[in-house]
Amino acid sequence: MRIINSEEITxxxxxxxxxxxxHINSDIKCALENSVKTEKSxxxxxxxxxLLKNAEIAHEKExxxxxxxxxxxxxxxxxxxxxxxxxxxxxxINKGVSLGYTEGYLRxxxxxxxxxxVNTKDNTPAVIYYDFVKGDKIKITFAPKGFGxxxxxGLKMLNPSDGVDGVIDFVIETVRKAGANPxxxxxxxxxxxxxxxxxxxxxxxxxTRDINISNTNPFxxxxxxxxxxxxxxxxxxxxxxxxxxxxxxxxxxxxPTHIAGLPVAVNVNxxxxxxxxxxx
Length: 280
Description:
Helix content: 25-40%
Distance between the termini: 14 Å
Number of helices: 8
Low-confidence stretches: none
Largest sheet: 4 strands, mixed
Shape: globular
């Protein structure tokens, strides 16, 4: 049994909140740089170059890539041989979020009641998904989710007979309706299977996978490529300015489902697709 003090979790989460919001990931940076080379529109090339310049300034000055520093979402894998001493792991994570967003001068965007709209003033509580695995470590994946893109996400309970074409059509239609609102070029997370809520969860988790890594199943890796090609033919382009770079990637995750259902969730993300991973 390995004992981890909750203060270590809190400090790790604090640092992750600042890092993910101020430093763009290398896979995203490479994709943006490649898009400058392949983009057909001169105006959109300029937009992509501005996004890269924005990321460079954020990195050098350690200021947020975007003013919307998101709602804090975590995927946490807890080893079976780990005991957390002190606060509960949930309390430790929320303390880390509070410190990260206040000490890092990140925008606090969370309200305590969805209708009364009173700000919690420290961006807590976080949304946390737990998974229990073998081992003596805790793996924390953090994804700050801005709502300019979150608001354009979608969920549909398809019939099994809708099949692959039905899934593709729904994903494309969701992106088409989103238009320029999610600050394209987008990254699209797709969750297929499970239940209504499980499909939404794995669609969001798909966005934490680096975009230079395809689904390990060749069938779904091919579907990712097909969807990306179709999305980039929509003509929305960077920041809605037209062109051939509407999305940087499509990441698909799947889960077993019921014989009578085919849940599909589409989680839309902006070009930054911020995320960070730490192992304690």
